[in-house]
Amino acid sequence: MTALSSAPVKPPFWNNPQIRAILFQVVALIVTVAFGLSIFENTQDNLRRLGIASGFDFLSSPAGFDIIQTLIPYSAASSYGQVFWVALLNTLLVSVLGIVFATLLGFVIGVARLSKNWLVARLALIYIETFRNVPLLLQIFFWYFAVLRAMPSPRDSLSLGDAFFLNIRGLYLPAPQFQPGFGWTIAALGVAIVLTIGLTRWAHHRQMATGQPFPTVSSTLALLIGLPLMVFWLTGAPLHWQVPELTGFNFQGGLVIIPEMASLLLALTIYTAAFIAEIVRAGIQAVSHGQTEASFSLGLQSSLTLRLIILPQALRVIIPPMTNQYLNLTKNSSLAAAIGYPDLVSTFAGTTLNQTGQAIECIVITMTVYLTISLLISLVMNWYNRRVALVER
Amino acid sequence: MTEFRVPHPDLPPPASTIGALGWMRRNLFSSPSNIALTALAAYLLWIALPPLLNWTVFKATWSGDTREACQANSGACWVFIRVHFDQFLYGFYPEAQRWRVNLAVLLLILGAAPLFTQIITNAAKVKLGLSLLVGYPIIAFILFKGGLFGLPDIETSRWGGLFLTLVIAGVGMTAALPLGVLLALGRRSKMPAIQTLCITFIEFWRGIPLITVLFMSSVMLPLFLPEGMNFDKLLRALIGVTLFQSAYMAEVVRGGLQAIPKGQIEAAAALGLGYWKAMALIVLPQALKLVIPGIVNTFIALFKDTSLVLIIGLFDLMNIVHNATTNPEWLGFSTEGYVFAAAVYWLFCFSMSRYSQSLEKRLHTGHKR
């Protein structure tokens, strides 16, 4: 008689989840490494065959081309390394300005979208739905080719108060000229900032200790604006405005915003503001009405309710997606390459790459910059997010 | 006999609180600040609307075949669009062969129509959807490219216009979603090597602009490949766009996966389902349903991003319109061109977002708060 075996059959080893997991990972790693190696070998071969130099020596050789907008000293004799810094600064300039303007416009539109006024809410909705659903590149092209390239020549410029001029070469603004003695005003501003911080701390302590509120907002504003202004007048207003003037065929002096920069900034601002508006709306709607009612029943005024109750909670919802938009805007600024604004992609990954032929180095440097910016902003925002996140149980 | 007091019949509400008047009082003129806002908005409309309408409709030229026809009117010259319309749709696809594109579009509409109706059962929908997913790309590719069954071969460099935009968007969407799901599962996997690979992949693609990806695909890819091997330009753009959007898709799907309670996976395991079955039958259906808005947002982003292939010289809708505006015979009509292109893009993106909203409502069976 054969005994029925009661011991369970041992499953084959390939059905063991732990062994399987190790197997999977080993295979994945081997495939990845093999893929990387084959790319590396191919690249080495191709570079040798095409006679392309490798390494970063090209960064110190002279560039030999001009850049239409430079924030730091640059000439055609400067090195490719200098090109990199010029291009990076141009990217950062347009990104930072875009972020500031898009945030302001986005907040306005987002609040308008929630307005009790039907007409205003509708207009905001139309704005959002229009600009969100049209590709950014198309908007950049529209502003650049259809609007700014269609501006009149410098002689027939559109002007505002004989100080601002708009023509096909760009937007001309009066440039501030700092005279000796302006440093005092800057110093006064510094003093005002220090005083403000001290005042806020003192007011906070006093309120904690005695319950007496202090009009912090109005007094700090008065301090920040009043003190530098007073010093400015006392030192004899050491600031002149250099107004652009038409000499011959073009304007001289003043501050020039080139059309490439203007159209890029305009499109980035308008496009991103539509997304920010939706984020702001969602954030404000996420704070339940009970919070406002509770705050009123505690006796807080509506301005205090907004500042102490609604905004902190709305910001918690707004900040993460807002960070994403800021990152998107920074990355989208690379579309500058399509209209020739001298940003990182068009100048460094474009012109420099074409002149030196060192594709890998140029693209790697460009990507590293964007990756660094992304990761830095992510890190900062994650830290902030952890700080404001709800602490539960 | 007792006398009953007959109540007075209800008075109608005051005239100022109902009807158009009441609505206007409530929504436009409820307070002084509201009145000021209404006035400001109305003033803005008053400034912007008449010139806009005049330009687009009343003073625009609609008929004619030459640019001279437009000189009489001060508004938009839609003749520019009329003349280039076929080019905007098909790019440089040979005129005699355009029926192939039309046929493919018709096939897709006929094939996919039952998916959006209630005629067939859900099980049949899944089968139909899967067979479309596998079969349609093959049929469409044969139709578009030709070289088989006596169809003349047409180089991908001649594809263009809205047709090319839809090809890139369609391929990108169908490839990025499954890839994104796999990446998201990998990122949440418990195997450290797989997880690290997926995180690196996702963060890399999310951290760089698409334009550098396209640059890379056009200048670096030839260096990566063995000598003599060459990729089609369109294929390179497709790979770039797909990989780029799959990283974003992965993050969207991960959000959905995180929202599914652990109990669901444990229950699936208790029923004896393995990892893939548990994911496919229990977790993913719920997770994907939760993140439909995010998925459609990614699709919309992808659709808009197809315009970037202009950078590597493909003639999609954006580039073909831009190209037409630089045509020496038709200079000066860039506004009309861009407005037309914007309207087309807008139509697609807006309908996608509306469809996602209706889908979201229909599928909103659980998790309602």
Compute the CA-based radius of gyration of chain A: 29 Å
Separation of termini of chain A? Answer: 63 Å
β-strand amount of chain B: under 5%
Shape of chain B: globular
Taken as a percent bin, the fraction of beta residues of chain A is: 5-15%
Number of helical segments with 4 or more residues of chain B: 15
- Largest sheet composition of chain B: none
CATH class of the domain at 155-258 and 291-360 in chain B: Mainly Alpha
Key descriptive features of the protein:
heterodimer, A: 393 residues, alpha+beta, MetI-like fold, four-stranded antiparallel beta sheet, two-stranded antiparallel sheet, 11 helices, 8 strands, 65% helix, B: 369 residues, mainly alpha, 15 helices
Structure, described:
The complex is a heterodimer of chains A (393) and B (369). By secondary structure, chain A is α+β, with helices and mostly antiparallel strands. Chain A has helices at residues 17-50, 80-113, 118-132, 136-147, 182-210, 216-234, 259-286, 289-297, 302-332, 344-356, 359-388, and strands at residues 158-160, 164-167, 170-173, 175-178, 239-242, 245-247, 250-252, 255-257. Chain A has a four-stranded antiparallel sheet. In chain A, helix 2 (80-113) packs antiparallel against helix 3 and helix 8 runs antiparallel to helix 9. The N and C termini of chain A lie far apart (63 Å). Chain B has a domain at 155-258 and 291-360: MetI-like fold (Orthogonal Bundle), CATH 1.10.3720.10. Chain B is globular, with a radius of gyration of 28 Å. The model of chain B has no long low-confidence stretch (mean pLDDT 83). At the A-B interface, helix 1, helix 3, helix 4, helix 10 and helix 11 of A face helix 2, helix 7, helix 8, helix 9 and helix 13 of B.
